[in-house]
Design brief:
- The chain has one helix and eleven strands; from the N terminus they run βββββββββββα.
- The protein has about 140 residues and is mostly beta strands.
- It has one domain: Jelly Rolls.
Length: about 140
């Protein structure tokens, strides 16, 4: 796996071998956590047809933006969901990452059509990642 700056985008690419583990992840530290009023993360990306954790489905070559609410995230341990009633405290989020895995966030299998089989490549280009406040979400709902 490699990550590079590709024309202003973070390009995450590589090859997965199902026999060698079946997942690939990349993450980066967030010094000081997210702003306290963060309720979601906005991710703008160029898709490759795979479904990444947080069950972010993609279509090949399509530019897209997703808003992932913190309250929709499912805590996980060793690839499967954990039972937790605790809310995510944005100020304590120390890392942000992307993962392509055999399993979806629910613990169910990621279908071959949106994951792959055998040995296969992946390529995700991230244009931007932003914290989203409740005020911004409420403002956008009022304008739609």
């Amino acid at each position: 796996m490699q990550s590079t700056d590709h024309g202003g985008k973070l390009h995450i690419s590589g090859q997965i071998n199902i026999g060698g583990g079946g997942f690939c992840s990349i993450r980066s530290r967030i010094e000081g956590g997210l702003p306290a009023d963060t309720v979601a993360i906005r991710v703008s990306y160029v898709e490759d047809g795979k479904t990444y954790k947080s069950d972010l489905p993609t279509k090949v070559g399509v530019d897209d933006t997703a808003i992932i609410r913190l309250d929709s995230l499912i805590p996980s341990l060793q690839g499967g969901p954990t039972k937790s009633d605790s809310k995510i405290d944005a100020t304590k989020v120390e890392e942000l990452g992307f993962k392509l895995s055999l399993k979806l966030s629910s613990g169910e299998s990621n279908p071959i059509e949106t994951f792959g089989s055998g040995v296969f490549p992946f390529s995700l280009k991230i244009r931007s990642i932003d914290a989203v406040s409740a005020d911004e979400i409420n403002h956008n709902h009022c304008n739609n």
